[in-house]
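U., I forgot to send this yesterday:
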Amino acid sequence: MVQTELAAIFKALADPTRLAVVERLSIGPASATELARPFEMALPSFMQHLAVLEAAGIVTSHKAGRTRTFQLAPGALGTATTWLGTHRNHWHRRLDQLDQLLTEPPPEPSPEPSPEPQPDPEQEPR
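Result:
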């Protein structure tokens, strides 16, 4: 269940239009018309973006007369925040390992043993 919810949140936020809407709603509630204003698309197309955000639980809406107002849902991004937090430590450790690998000088190669001297074929054995 959490993975499905998490996938829906990240999928909804992956679209630049929807991400911009979430950023705008972080300031405060706004009508659908106000949210659509900066985008060059028809209102019905824009409403589909809002529907995706609402289905993912990121925003809620209420209608008063002919105006539908949207706002961020309380704790909307909590699932994503928790997931990111649990994985942050792992990513930091891996990046630290990579940093160490890239910044440390390579180990000195061990000297190869010298070959054993070969007898000179022109010298007589003693």
